[in-house]
Protein 1
Amino acid sequence: VATHRDEVLAQVSEALENELGVEPERITGPADLRADLELDSLDLVELVAVLEDRIGGKLDGPAVDGIRTVDDVIDLIIRQPS
Amino acid sequence: VSGVLVTGMGVVSPAGVGLAAFHAGQLAGHGATGVISHYDPGDDEVRIAGQVDLPDELALSRRDRLRTDRCTQLAAAAVRLALQDAVVDGVDPARVGVVIGSSMGGQSTVEENYLSYFRGGPTAFKTRAIPMSMINDPAAWTSIRYGFTGPCLAVATACASGADAIVAGYQMITCGEADVVLAGGAEAPVVRGIVSGFAKLGALSRRNAEPERASRPFSKDRDGFVIAEGAAVLVLESAAHAAARGARAHAELRGYGRSSDAHHVTMPHPSGAGAAAAITAALRGAGAEPGDVGLVNAHGTGTALNDVTEALAIRAARLGDVPVTATKSLVGHALGAAGAIEAVATVQAVTSGLVPPTANLDEVDPEIDLDVVCGASRALKGLALSNSFAFGGHNVVLAFAPVGG
């Protein structure tokens, strides 16, 4: 049974794959956005913008600056007040 | 050992990708323009263009394609081919410059982002919209990708950008600022807004029913140019540096000439005086007489005004009896890439000793008193000039000579 976390992972994976061109096999929860997925600062700005667009709300500013891994991104979305 | 040599070339054009295909395309002499497929032109007045079929092995990775406009993607392919051709491994990267001209840079990025912006408001621009669309992105991308840390810039003089970029590279080498310069142009203007804008100027052919026969420089029934995309890059190198590393050269960039019409933003001066001054200056720069010239690769756009005034200019520069050919008859007009694509064609004419025919020339305009090569290629001896004349009145003429010739 797909959990909410799985659904959010799918959402983040879709954004990484389709908007930023990250190969799907590299996308895992612990993957480091910069070191493993080779995203730069512009990619991270775009990732946050795309996800905000998908969920229809702003992601929390200070927390956005702290994201390091794919799991961090998922946590950030799950923690958002809906 | 002095002078500036062409030690590598890369070309990505509707009439061929890579030197061999492009040369074969020129000698075959068939127009390579076609029906627009980059977008649906619907019932637009102009539905034809020159488009590049970029092979997978020259395409950037999917991630890099998402980070670049097609303008930079075409430039990247031309750079890669030029570097493969020149084999410049082991060159000090601080002594390598990059100059890639473009008329308007990443226009599909501009169009897509403004469409999003008008629908979704100011936050709808993509994060990379600005760097992807800037005119210097092809040059910057090249410097970053290959780690070349010498001077890196773009030149924007509309349809003379590619030729002006080659002049800038020549100057970097002759003033001692660089040993090797990647110089050329890139353009990706097959975007609905841009094509429509050129159509509104009355500059484009409406020969939609005969796409491959629509680009008709010097022809009596020409009706405008066919817009095209493409890129070309020359590896320019000081003769001393090339000799020291034992590099083979295609040709020598013997000199150049430039002038400005100071007349009108889109129309050439009706006397052709500005263009003639640039041609004459190129001869002077190359230390040549009119009798030394075996080919003029014309700007030859296929617009009513350009071709007549260019003919006057060529005659005024005392080159009225020299064989003339127009690469745009095959490729269409790739704007800021045109001068670079035609520089490649001119160098290929010098190295092969063959002037390729001008395509689609069934009947030369009686107002044009030139020896336009058509039907079949012709033998070439001596110096070859490549003309580029641009919106804004920028006139640039490059002079190429056989190595040691």
Protein 2
Amino acid sequence: MPSSQPEEEGEHVGHDGAEAQVQRMAVQKAMSLLSEEHRIVVALVLVDGLPYKEAAAVLDIPMGTLTSRLARAREALQKLLSDERALT
Amino acid sequence: MTFSDDILMAYADGELAEPQRSQVDAAVRADPELAAIVERHRALRARVFDAFAGVLDEPVPARLDAAAASKVLSLDAARNARTRAAATPASAAAPVRQPVWPRWGALAATLVLGVLAGSLWFKGDGSGFVGADGSGRLVARGQLAGALSRQLASDPAPNSPVRIGVSFATRDGGYCRSFSVGASAGLACRDGETWRIPVLSDKAASGGAYRQAASTAPEAVLDAIDERIAGTTMNAAAERAARERGWRRWLNQERLNRLRQPARTCYTIKSPGAQCERRRT
């Protein structure tokens, strides 16, 4: 007699499905692995949507510094996201 | 003409001014490799935003019947509920988000204070959690005001009677935070040096989870959040940054000066991936 399948943890996540939820969690995990400096700049610009000028004023850094820091933060984030092992 | 990755990122973010924007624009059209880099920046931005915006899109069934269950102490919220009820005569199954948000006048606050009079919330001697400002609007006082300014949602203070739910940036350029004290919950929005309270309500005893907040927020509060929120709720880092600047979107000079000292250490990083060294805390 075949043993019954373990009950699926089939939570209904919604129309965009479990895959999208996994994606979001991966990004959240990757964000948590960034240095605080990088996390803050990503949060201000990419999540809060502040213009560079405003984000630079908030952090009290020149625009050039903000831009290069944001670029480094994105690089780090992209790297974390492409290295899936770091996120599981 | 070649462009650095910083320039391409700024272009992808819509941050370049003319004439540079047109120059990059032309280069991107001509070079699929550049176009791919720009696209990668945009995709990452969208992905990050989505990761933190998604929490607000999840349907919360408890919201549908919470309005009936909770005693709403805000005239705004009561009006809102009526508008919604009128818009959906058949059932409450499809809540309609009305873009109309009636202005919160002095009269409404006075009515709320009348309801609250004699309760823990509002004491005539000013020792309660809320009071009225010069124009009769409901504002946070005492421990509530302190908690709204200092407590992080991610790091609840065990000794505080106040729990912070979510924090977010508003469409009109400010910040609001949802909170609860005992069986009541509300929304507070930063207004100059005070926290204005546009809605205050009994907490609905329902199972609907709103983000990771341990407590549930009544529908009146969720509605008030929906009406104001720009983008998504703030994560811990954004919340900390907002607290650092006194819940202003712009820092005043004094705060700028104070932040300037410890932050300087990090400015000279040359290699990508290098950690910012903390000299002292």
Protein 3
Amino acid sequence: MSNRTTLVRLGPLLCVLGLASACSKSPILNHQEEEVRRAGGSVSGASQAPQNAINENNCPMSFNMPSTVSENAPARLCLQLRFSDPPREGNNTVRLDFSHDVDVREFNIDLWMPTMGHGSEPVILSQLASKSILIQDVWLIMPGLWQIRMRWRGQLVNYEFSL
Amino acid sequence: MSLVSNILLRISVALILLYTLTTHNTAFGSACCSASSQVPTLITSDSVMQLGLRTARSSVIGSSGPNTTSRFYNHERSDITYRLELLGAYALNDRWQLNASIPLTKRVRRVDTAEAEHWGLSTVALGGSYELVPEIEYSSWKPRVFLFASIGLPLSNSDEARLDLGTHIHGSTSLVKTAGFFLLKQFNTVDWNLLLAQAHDAFYTSVASVGFGWHGPEGLRLGVNIGPTYQFGSGLLGQNRLVIDTSFNLGLSFFDDYSLNINYLDQTLFGPTKNSELSRVVNLLFLRRFDL
């Protein structure tokens, strides 16, 4: 079979595929690129302020530290939560930075919509650094009020935001 | 094959089908739409047995949200899965076949400065098929119709899935039951095929695919397949997931009993897609057939 015949046969098929791709909501033709982090940043949000050290003076949220015999022990575990990109419907990534070393296995985190009475899928937790945890697969399935519910050693801290 | 074993086999496949279509159990789910083929290894030639080795590289390049908008990951994030799979099928008689696949999988995931990898056995599948409509007499239009069913062994656990950057590779945490039809027709130098399949582990997944192929000289085949994979209710609110798989296929048969198949599957070409990761997969299949 000549090359010309082959082209004649494949041509209409390729045209149909191209047309279907253009008419459907093709991801390759209709997508956003994930934002690249700023220099010096991390999975921190490109749209958010640069990271400051998390400590008693910069403590957006906190858990109470368990009581210890040492008087110099910190009273609370401070943390800051940041989205890698501005929160959006779909799959998101979140970073938690702490004032002290943490173990990801002690955390239980889920997503909840308090006004709707439901949540979303389980997230994936990873130890990014000794004082940082990465939360992946933060699927925000609809607009509305959301909570990221963080449980640590029997305590609960909610991070609430609107989408 | 003896009458008893024939009856036992028929009962087994019927039970698998019944179990697949009627049971529902809740368990921690596997990732949606893994781009792995739902079609078992079917013998469509006169061979009595075939063995295959498949290697695949799958890369997640982005995700689609509930409103069908897609976002492609930047260079700080990568999620690559390598797969080496042993496939086999055995024809018990003219219509009944058994098949099995044993995949070894390695997944490497990187996010920012964190990187994790994990490898091991993925879902091991065992199944059977029945040629519902064989091609006994020549027909220019009537396709061969295969009915198939399989079970995938649950080798995963939910703890594994939530740590180490999500590099879990052991597949589902519950038994994966798959059943479906596969229609195949070759006429002159062209062929077409149609796949309709339903799988169930923690969720119901429906797969449909239509394909066309052209047979050239020297055992060459060029093909294309397109179809949706739809996963029902995998979100807590019953949010469904949808991807459109498009694959391009180059096959080469040689020495009568051997074939080599290169397949490129892309989930970013057609939409709409929603609530799912988007992958691109390249796989290479080497197949050896054994005649009677």
Protein 4
Amino acid sequence: MRNMMSDTMKQQLSSMMDGEADGNTDLTAGHLMESATLKHTWWRYQLISDALNRNLPGVLDRDLSGKLAAQIAREPAILAARRNTAIRLLKPAAGLAIAASVATIAILGIQQDSMNSPGLEEMQVTATRLPEFNTGIDRYAVPASSHIVTIRSDDADSVVVPDNAAPNARMNSYLVNFNEARLSQTGVQGINPYVRIVTNDSDN
Amino acid sequence: MSELSPMTATIKHTLADYRNSICLLLLQLPAWALAGADGLTAQQLVQSMSRAMHELNYDGVFVYRHGQRLSAMRLIHKYGDDGETERLVSLNGTPREIIRNNESVTCIFQDEKSVMLEKSHPYTLPLAQLNDTLDKLSQYYRFSISGQDRVAGYASAVVSVQPRDNYRYGYQLWIDNENYLLLKSELKNESGYPVEQIEFTRLEVLDTIPDEWLVPAIASDGYARIDNMSAPVLQATPGGKWKVGWLPEGFAMGVQVMRRPAPASNNLDHMTYTDGMALVSVFIEPETIQYRLVPGASRVGAVNTFVRHAYGFQVTVIGEVPPATVEKMAVSVSNDN
């Protein structure tokens, strides 16, 4: 991969992110993992997509929208490719996200390193790390075992990340028990459910 | 994969035996129309895949993509007299590992310096039940073979499993023509877009897996431990006081257990519902300040969750299904008392 990416490549990346690349691109997930340039571009597009989806974690920079707009302006290929996509992305979420609180309850270590991608240095998006919690019975730390993203909170007071690790540890325990049920009770095995716990989004 | 390792080459007879046993088992199946590799139908390929994933020894590296995120992982799977043991390791970023055997699931997280232990539930679905499941599944999913493809150097059949309604996800499965292992998989949402994908970039089927390959590389001495292995399983009342009033067509209750998770707290009900392909868990426990989850919808990869507080209890529904499904199920939960 050369340093310069073609607009075509950018558009293919954009399509791939939107799940529209079936049979229309030579790019594969393997290509992305092997090329630093492709990966960095991928992460830039991802952040833009997250912004459009309102899936950004924890505490956000107040001026983020302006910086995102500037970032989008620096990506002519993605802007052209995603003009319709933005509308489409918001549509399915309209019933969920627009009138609802968007919060991250347990994004543990998520996206910090993706912020190091070229061109994103000025975007100060801070992922909230949850503190350890001492029960007095055992040192009860929250494992960074999952990336739980709140799509819609029905609790108006829950926009701020709760300063309490125990619920997140409970959710992690739920996820493991769900995985075990998935593996033992369904006849058809597809994606190993534990990939969702092992995945390390923060380092890319 | 361009070349087989020497070890792989020496075990071809074992794999041939395995394939023969698969073919013999398939003779017992209903006479579906033949297609695909070895003349197998889509359902037969899926069945063979499900068995192969449990009953073969393999070591591979794959890329996991969910939404816009990518991760690389290594999966080592061993099958022997003691059942299954597998080790899943993150290859990028801070090390994380999961070791799973017939007794336990151990999750090790270097970044948080913590270890979580839970009881595992080994796969025990008998072949006859798997046949019945696949027959039943065709009422709710359309099975077809989309074509042939090549993944990680292996020729594979591409099997499409499309849901007949919007309350479950669709699947696209790339199944190895030779060993029936799953080489690539996509989970597709209601619009047909992939929301999750795994794709092996390297995979070797082996005769044996050395035990040392299954030992975690993370030295977890001194890490915080969350041990739910010893959580007592209590007697649950079948169909107890809790009722899930709405289920997608074809879903039925799997199991219901009650336990007391660590640290000592209130009893927790866990009910599962499955159509044979997708599974939804419903967790119910008294609402407490300590374990109160944010109500509403969340997701972990393609797994959706919905939390609701009602009757003084916390209802958490988790499933590899669309958000609407977990929400409708959560809202329909009622208490007979």
